[in-house]
Design goal:
Elements (H helix, E strand, L loop, with lengths): L1 H47 L4 H7 L3 E4 L6 H12 L9 E4 L3 E7 L5 E8 L1 H4 L1 H44 L16 H34 L3 E5 L4 E5 L1 H7 L8 E2 L7 H13 L3 E6 L7 E9 L9 E8 L1 H36 L6 H31 L7 E4 H11 L1 H6 L3 E7 L3 E4 L1 H17 L6 E9 L4 E8 L6 H6 L9 H7 L5 H11 L3 E7 L3 E9 L1
Parallel strand pairs: 12-14
Antiparallel strand pairs: 1-4, 2-3, 3-4, 5-6, 5-10, 6-7, 8-9, 9-10, 11-13, 14-15, 15-17, 16-17
Helix pairs in contact: 1-2, 1-5, 5-6, 9-10, 10-16, 11-13, 13-16
């Protein structure tokens, strides 16, 4: 409303100024007319000495007014002035103003004799010229007023746009581009604002990129990460943390207690929030996972002025480490037990021989056979343990291997137990039999699988060995099938564990160490392959190995 009244007020002021100027000019004209009238009345007085009043008035360019009459406007005006006491003898003159005229009266001597003269006022001198001057004046002044008003409107609009842009910057919104001509007063300001807009957009894009990279980094960390504010609300987390806590953590800000169900971890976080102290402890999480984790709760203060502290919770999964540690303990215990049995047998029977049994030829042969059997078993156990230790080492380079020849050599080396139990071995080869692979590892896998098929087979059973070489996908597949005793589902889940035996009595009878399939599994893993077993109790087992080349 105020902006709309501006031009109206300006126009009104221009009108007032014009009126003031016109009145001022008319006053100047009035003074000039007064002086002229004085000169004419002075001439009238001189002429009246030699002429009549009427003739003197006519010669002086004045009008003689008979105050006894009121026929004309001059006679009426003189009469009114006399009766009002404004026109008296001895006064220089009296002026009676109307809008268009200025009438001057002069009385000399008797009040019956008055001379007068009408003068036109400024706007009546030349009405057309005065109107034209007024028209030109108002056109010029109003045009200037409208021009500056329009310019002020445009300037105000540009300033408002710049102000709105700066407000959008505060609200982290994109600024609207402003385009002005180079001669505009706000051109430099708008250009600087546009430059600021581009700089801020670039900074905002960089910040978003850094945020995405940071979230991507946190999201792919194998350790659980959770960031809390000073009120204990979750600001950020990664999927590893959700997996460890076995919770579907919301991305919205919420109290950490909704996700952390383990009392010891919750207590560590609460203590850090209240006491501003870091905590580090190994704990076991409750819930379905029941994982062991190394928990760190760390107080974060970014600067001295930053009183809104944050708390970082880091969980490192120790479950696999604990499982491996337990496996190592179990392995040592099993090795000790497995070594103790043959050593005890060798020690006992050798002591018996030394005590006199060697003098009995029958006992001597029997005890020596037992000692030999146990020493062979001990040697195989040590060899398997050494094989396990060598599995993780990849010291040998890949080389060209003819898989058919190597399988035949393995079968020939096992011909004694094969013939002893009347087992029929059938081999089939599909694809190119020449492959490039770690020779020692592939022979270790095949020999242990064939030994396992012999040890757990039935008398006069069958073993089927298939080799497939897929040159398109560049991978090989072994399928070793036997007609042995088979396994239950529970046995299949544990068959690749170290020292696990499906039938312990049969394993002891055949001289198995319980490490063969564990060696196979770990060797296949080092070659980035997979092994699976399919078995039914009493119907035999089928082992399938897939290895990329």
């Amino acid at each position: 409303m105020r902006k709309k009244l501006g031009p109206i007020i300006a126009i009104a002021i221009s009108v007032i100024v014009f009126i003031v100027l016109a009145v001022f000019s008319d006053n100047i004209l009035g003074h000039s007319q007064n002086e002229m009238f004085e000169e004419e009345t002075a001439s009238y007085r001189e002429l009246k000495k030699n002429h009549s009043q009427i003739e003197a008035a006519r010669y002086s360019s004045l009008y003689y007014v008979d105050t006894t009459k009121r026929n004309t406007s001059l006679e009426k005006g003189a009469y009114d002035l006399i009766h009002r006491g404004r026109l008296t003898p001895g006064q220089n003159f009296v002026t009676n103003n109307t809008f268009g005229t200025r009438t001057m009266y002069y009385m000399h001597g008797s009040n019956h004799y008055v001379v007068a003269k009408k003068y036109k006022r400024l706007w009546s001198q030349d009405t057309f010229s005065f109107v034209m001057v007024a028209f030109v004046y108002f056109v010029m002044t109003d045009s200037m007023i409208l021009f500056f008003y329009r310019r002020r409107q445009m300037l105000s609009k540009d300033i408002e746009s710049v102000t709105d842009n700066l407000k959008r910057v505060r609200k982290n919104k994109d600024m609207a581009s402003l385009i002005l001509s180079p001669d505009d007063e706000l051109y430099d300001l708008v250009e600087q604002t546009n430059d600021i807009n581009r700089d801020i957009n670039e900074l905002r894009d960089n910040a978003r990129l850094r945020e995405r990279r940071f979230k991507g980094l946190i999201g792919h960390l194998p350790i659980g990460v959770m960031l809390l504010n000073s009120q204990g609300e979750v600001l950020m987390h990664n999927q590893a943390m959700a997996g460890l806590l076995d919770e579907n953590i919301s991305n919205d800000i919420h109290p950490f207690i909704e996700d952390v169900k383990t009392y010891s971890l919750s207590r560590m976080i609460e203590h850090t929030l209240r006491k501003n102290k870091n905590h580090h402890r190994e704990i076991q999480l409750v819930g379905n996972s029941q994982k062991y984790v190394d928990a760190n709760v760390i107080r974060l203060v970014h600067s001295r002025e930053d009183f809104d502290q944050q708390v970082l919770v880091i969980l490192y999964d120790l479950t696999e480490s604990r499982r491996f540690e337990q496996m190592q303990v179990d392995f040592v215990n099993n090795v000790s037990h497995e070594l103790k049995t043959p050593i005890t047998s060798i020690e006992g029977f050798s002591e018996t021989l030394l005590n006199g049994a060697k003098d009995d030829p029958e006992k001597l042969d029997h005890f020596l056979n037992i000692i030999n059997h146990e020493s062979v078993r001990l040697s195989e156990l040590i060899q398997d343990i050494l094989s396990l230790s060598k599995v993780k080492k990849d010291t040998e380079q890949s080389q060209m291997v003819n898989i058919s020849e190597d399988i035949d050599k393995i079968i020939d080396s096992l011909s004694i137990p094969i013939n002893k139990h009347g087992i029929q071995v059938n081999t089939s080869f599909f694809g190119n039999q020449n492959i490039t692979i770690n020779k020692e590892k592939i022979n270790l896998i095949m020999s242990n699988l064939i030994k396992n098929a012999i040890s757990y087979n039935k008398e006069n059973g069958d073993i089927s060995i298939e080799f497939h070489h897929d040159e398109i996908e560049n991978r090989i597949r072994f399928v070793i099938k036997d007609t042995g005793i088979g396994m239950t589902d529970d046995d299949q889940n544990r068959v690749f564990e170290r020292f696990y035996r499906v039938d312990k009595s049969r394993s002891l009878e055949t001289g198995g160490t319980g490490l063969g399939l564990a060696i196979v599994k770990e060797t296949v893993d080092t070659l980035n392959g997979t092994i699976s077993v399919e078995s039914h109790k009493g119907l035999g087992s089928t082992f399938t190995v897939n290895i990329p080349l």
